[in-house]
Amino acid sequence: MKTITWKLHLKSNTQDVFSLLSTSEGRKKFWAERADEDNGVINFLFPNGQTYKGRILEMIPNKRFHLDYFDSMVKFHLKPSHDGGTDLVLINENVQENEFSEVNAGWISVLMNLKAVADFQCDLRNHDSKRTWDQGYAEN
């Protein structure tokens, strides 16, 4: 098992970033086609039709959001930065070694779209079920 760690600086404040991570509407803006929550479980639907039920494991407003995600643990840690923005750290633990390269690249795609949505109100995804990660498209 391997661990992925990425850092991202956003000009948006921690409350706005946390809202994108922790609400169904927020996740829909940058991460999944749908990501509705029911009793602490997020029902993800992705452009290629794939689904996953991820349990929220820890949620501390404006600081931490942890969840089970494809049988691994994903942790988002938020910290206010000196310029009024947010320093975000993503840690994805227990990633299968044979999936590491794809998952690592996938997080870059998700995090860059999070930045685009949070800081520039622009969704970079194509929302086209025929142009997904499975066909080699990065913007899904």
Description:
- The protein contains three helices and seven strands.
- The chain has helices at residues 14-22, 24-30, 100-120; strands spanning 2-10, 34-38, 41-45, 51-60, 64-69, 72-80, 86-95.
- α1 packs across α2.
- 26% of the residues lie in helices and 39% in strands.
- A seven-stranded antiparallel beta sheet has the order 1-7-6-5-4-3-2.
- The model has no long low-confidence stretch (mean pLDDT 96).
- A hairpin with a 2-residue loop joins β2 (34-38) and β3.
- The chain has a single domain (2-127), classed as START domain (Alpha-D-Glucose-1,6-Bisphosphate, Chain A, domain 4), CATH 3.30.530.
- InterPro entries: START-like_dom_sf (IPR023393).
Using only C-alpha atoms, the radius of gyration works out to 14 Å
CATH homologous superfamily assignment? START domain
For the residues shown, what is the average pLDDT? 96
* Corresponding CATH architecture: 2-Layer Sandwich
Strand content: 35-45%
Which CATH C-level class is it? Alpha Beta
The rounded distance between the terminal residues' Cα atoms is 26 Å
Shape summary: globular
Number of discrete domains: 1
Q: What are the main properties of this structure?
A:
3 helices, START-like_dom_sf, 7 strands, Alpha-D-Glucose-1,6-Bisphosphate, Chain A, domain 4, 26% helix, 140 residues, alpha+beta
